[in-house]
Design a protein that fits this description.
168 residues; elongated
Length: 168
Amino acid sequence: MGRNFFHVYLIVVTCRIFILFLYKVQNKCLGYINCTRSTNITEVSPEDQLVYDTVCKRINNFLINEKHFQDKNINIVEMAHQCHIRKDLVNKTLKAKYDLTFSNYLKEKRIKYACTLLLDPSNMKIDVISDASGFKTTRTFVRSFRSVKNVSPTEYRHLQVFKRNMFC
């Protein structure tokens, strides 16, 4: 009796391990990345750190290299779908690596791009820069810019021109 119980137990455990293995293989074949551990970056295992790095590369490639941050309608659901990453893993990764939500991460990337346009010698208008940076309205752009840089876009442009003229 004890021997049969042990064999049944061994079969059940083996089946569970095999099912878990198939689940992981299936997700890797589909290109989906999973992470189940802590979100505190100081407590992250090397395996999860690798997952976070991979997710960040996919996010940056999609948003920055492919310039999807300029799309006014981009959202976390669409980006996660296009990058083959779970939505919750996107937020978990950005929170762990940068202490930012997806919305704030996207806003910072758009503001960084807007700063380069503000310093462009062509002296583009603020509404054109707002549109080119992916903001839906100029008002949202100015409000977001002020929250990140603590000055308005116009003030930022004038300060940078002043600094450039002072040191030339």
